Amino acid sequence: MSVLVNKDTKVLVQGMGKTGRFHTDMAIAYGTNMVGAVHPSRAGQVERFTGETDHSGVQGRPDEYDVTIPIFRTVRDAVRSTGANASVVYVPPPFAADAIMEAAEAGVPLIVTVTEGIPVADMVMAKRYLEGKNVRLVGPNCPGVITPQECKIGIMPGYIHTPGRIGVVSRSGTLTYEAVHQLTLNGLGQTTAIGIGGDPVNGTNFVDALAAFNDDPATEGVIVIGEIGGTAEEEAAEWIKANMTKPVAAFIAGTSAPAGKRMGHAGAIISGGKGTAEAKIEALEGAGVVMASTPTDMGSAMLEALSSAG
Amino acid sequence: MKIHEYQAKALMKVRGIPVPEGVMAATVDEAVAAVRQLIESTGNAVVVVKSQIHAGGRGKGHFKEHPGVGGVSVVLDGIDGGIEAAESRVRELASQMLGSTLVTIQTGDEGKIVNRLYIEQGIDIATELYLSVLLDRSTSRNIVMASTEGGTEIEVVASETPDKIIKEDVDPAFGLTDFQARRIAHGLGFEGDTFKNGVRFLKTLTEFASDMDTDLVEINPLVVTTDGRVMALDGKMAFEANALYRHPDVAELRDETEEDPAELEAKEFGLSFISLDGSIGCMVNGAGLAMATMDIIKYVGGEPANFLDVGGGAEKDQIVAAFKLITADPNVKGIFVNIFGGIMRCDIIANGVVAAVEEVGLEVPLVVRLEGTNVELGKQIIDDSDLNVVSATDMKDGAEKIVELAK
C-alpha cells in the first residue's frame, strides 16, 4: 500500500520541453507508466524513449526499454485516449497555472507540478479554480511524488528510495532526499515520499499528506520536513495532536535564518515575527512529535518515534 | 522587489489613488527648487523632506553624520517666513541628508546611504489609519488588513490589540466586493463623503495590488485630511519577483544600490546567495538543504557566512562563480561544500570545485561532503586532484570538521 500513486497510476506529461523530456525518460527508466504528453502545436506526433532500465524501480523488467508516447493537443483529448489518472506539469512558469487548470477541468485526479517560479497571483487563481473539484494538486516548485518500485512522478533520484514503512512529506527537495536516504540506510524504507514544494501558495499541504498517511495501512510512521515561513507546520502540529494515530518525527530548517530574508524558496521567510523555526518546533514538540535536532538525525528520530510508540 | 516611496506614490497617482503632491530630488538644488513649486501649487506653506531608502522606520531614524537630523523632517519655516525661509531650511536639511547614512530600526547599525529625497507638500491630518493588502498563506488569497491604529507598527497592534485589526479576504474571482469595502470603511469610522472616498480608495487599491502582482502594499499611515479626503501619506510596495516579467515598467524601478552586490552577482549566475555575518562559507544544492547546512554549522558551534543554493542544474561555471563569491568575503575562515546529488551529479560538482580552486586559489580549509548520484566518481575526482580537501561522511561530520578547522 501507499498514498497518491502506485503501480496502477497512468501519467500524462504537460510540458514536453527539454526538462520534461529528460525527466519523462528518467521516469520510464524507473518503470513509471507514462501514457501520453500534451503539447498545443505538436499533436499527432510521438516521443520515443529508449535506454537502460533502472532496476531500483519497478521490478521484473527487461534490461532495456523502448517506449513511444503519443502527444495530444489538449489534456481532455489525452485523458480520453489514454485513461491517464495523474499529470505532471513541467510547463514554463507563465503558462503553468493554466496547465494546472486544464488538467483539473479534464478530470485528472492528481496533478503534480514541478515548475518553479509560477507567479503567486496565478496560483491564487488556480487554487480558486480547483475549489469544489475532486482534484489533488501537489506543488508547485516541488520534486514530486514517489512510491518506491511502483511509480515515480517528478525529478527525484529514484535509486535512493526503497519500499518500506515510512511516509515522508517535505517542503524541500534535497532535504527529502536526505531523509529518504537515511530511511533506506536504517532499513525503515518508505511507503510514499511527497514533496509539497517551497512556494507560499501550494496544493497539498502537511495536513493533507498526514491525513493520507494516517489512513494508509502500510504506513507505520511519518517524517515531516518543514522550514521557516508561513504557519503550515503549526497547522500540522494541531492536526497531529487531534487526529494522528501514528508516530511522527520532524525536522525544521531555518533555525539560523535571519528575519526578513528569503532563504531561496519563495515561501521561506520570517516576516513580522511570524514563521520562525522556534515557533514551529515548539508546536510540533507540543503535539508529541520527535524532533531531529539536525538533518543528519532524521532517520534516527523516526526510529525513536517508532520505538517510543511501541 | 521593493521600490521607493516616491515611486510607489507615482504608481498610485497614475491609478487615481489620492497621494500628496511631491517631487523626488537627487541633489540639494533639486530639493530647493521643489519647495517653491509645491508651496505655490498646493497653497500649503509646510513641506516635508523624506529620505528615500528601502528600509522602514525612517521617521524615527537618525543620520550617523548628523545625529540631530531625522530621516523625515517637517519644515514649518514657510508658515511665518514665506517660501524663502522654507527654501533655506530645505537647503540646509538636504545638504545634511543627501549622501549621509541613515540608521533605522530596520537598517541595522551600519545604516543606509541616502541618495534621494522626496519633497512633499504638508497635509492637514484629522486621523491616521493603517491599510495593507498582502497574501494570506493559510487561505491562499490576498487579504485587506486595516486598523484605526495608524502610524504604529502593525505587528504591535496585532499582538496587543488584535480586535483593532479589520480583515477582509479577497476572492480572486470577484475582487474586494462593495459590501466588504463598506465593512472596512465602517470599521475605520468613515462617514459622509469620507465614507464614499474611503470605499473608492479601498477598492482601487485592492485592484491595483492584484493587477500589479504586489507581494505587499502597505499604507501607514493612511490619513483622513481635515477636509475629509482619504489619502496615502506613506506608501510601501513590494512586487512579486516571479511576475515582474508582466510589468516591465515596474521592473525598471529596481534600485540596485539598495541591494547587496554579492547577491546581485549571484543572481546573474542563477545562484541564490545571501550574505551573513559568520565565518563558515557554505555551498549547497537545494534551498532547504542550504538552510539546514547553516543550521547545522551553528548547531556544532560555528557561524555561517552565507546561504548559497547552487540549484539543481549547476554547471562548472556556476560552481566556479559560487566559489568566487564565497572566497571574496574576508570573514570566511573555512568552506563547507555539502551536496546531495539527485539530478545534480556529484562528479560535476567535484570537477567544478577542482576547477574553482585552480582558478581562485584556496587559502582556507575546505570540507566536502558528497552524497547521491555518481558519489564514488565525485570522491575519486577530489582524491586525484591533490587539493587540500577534507572529506566528510555526512552533514554533521562535515560541519564538525569545518568548524574545528576554521578555529
Structural summary, described in words:
The complex is a heterodimer of chains A (310) and B (407). By secondary structure, chain A is of the alpha/beta class. Chain A folds into 2 domains: 129 residues, NAD(P)-binding Rossmann-like Domain (Rossmann fold); 148 residues, 3-Layer(aba) Sandwich (Rossmann fold). Helix content of chain A is 33%, strand content 24%. Chain A has 9 helices and 14 strands. In chain A, the strands form 2 sheets. Chain A has a 7-stranded mixed β-sheet with strand order 3-4-2-1-5-6-7, sandwiched between helices. The longest helix of chain A has 13 residues. Chain A is globular. The two termini of chain A are 22 Å apart. The relative contact order of chain A is 0.12. Chain B is of the alpha+beta class and 407 residues long. In chain B, 38% of the residues lie in helices and 25% in strands. Chain B contains 13 helices and 19 strands. In chain B, the strands form 5 sheets. In chain B, strands 8, 9, 10, 11, 12 and 13 form a 6-stranded antiparallel β-sheet that branches. In chain B, strands 1-7-2-4 form a 4-stranded antiparallel β-sheet, covered by helices on one side. The radius of gyration of chain B is 26 Å and the shape is elongated. The two termini of chain B are 38 Å apart.
> How large is the count of helical segments of chain B?
13
Shape by Cα distribution of chain B = elongated
Helix-strand category of chain B: alpha+beta
**Order of H and E elements of chain A:** EHEEEHEHEHEEEEHEHEHEHEH
- Strand segment count of chain A: 14
What is the average of the pLDDT values of chain A?
95
- Classify the secondary structure makeup of chain A into a structural class: alpha/beta
Overall number of strands of chain B: 19
Question: What general form of chain A does the structure show?
Answer: globular
Average pLDDT value of chain B?
93
Unreliable runs of chain B: none
- How far apart are the termini of chain A? 22 Å
CATH superfamily (homologous) name of the largest domain in chain A: Succinyl-CoA synthetase domains
Low-pLDDT regions of chain A: none
**How many strands, which pairing sense, and closed or not: the largest β-sheet of chain B?**
6 strands, antiparallel
Task: Indicate the radius of gyration of chain B in whole angstroms.
Answer: 26 Å
